[in-house]
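Dear colleagues,

As part of the handover before I leave the project, I'm documenting each prediction I ran so the next person doesn't have to rerun anything. This entry is a single chain, and its sequence is reproduced below.
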Amino acid sequence: MDEGLVVRAQQGDQRAFEALAVDAYGRLYRLAHGILRDATMADDATQQALVNIWQDLPRLRDPSRFEGWCYRLLVNACHDQTRRSPRWISIDGPHGHEPIACDDAASVADRAELEHGLSRLSLEHRTVLALRFLLDLTPDEIADALGIPRKTVYSRLQRALASLRAAMDAEARPVLSRPLPREATR
């Protein structure tokens, strides 16, 4: 990332901000989609984050922290988005423009199971998982992006993975049928 662009954008250079926004949009959208699991909501949150970034950019103290700061604003926009429309929609294409590659039946079932498991996680847990596994950020970068201690990142990651595992295990267990009561069999 070019810190010179950040400084110019902080000073009101719209072209510099445009270059920053174009460069960051894909990462921001991917993170928003990872958190919200809905293309429309992710697009809205990304757009709102970009507006907030432009408005708050003059207050950014350290241009070298621009990327982590953007992630924090995006996470806040995602939280705002879920408060405005608390709905849950399952898997869709990455931004709705590109078709999803054909999967075999087992892969589709695995993705559906994963999606269901993710839907059971809290927004905080989906956020740390998306930052870690979608954007491949280190725990230190996640801590910086969320404004939380590194140890909190580790504990949230651990809890999120344990919750996801438990949700997926529960989904995979067969449903046991109960025998009918004696009165019903007579």
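Residues 88-103 have pLDDT under 50 and may be disordered. Residues 7 and 128 are 29 Å apart (CA to CA).

All the best with the project,
I.
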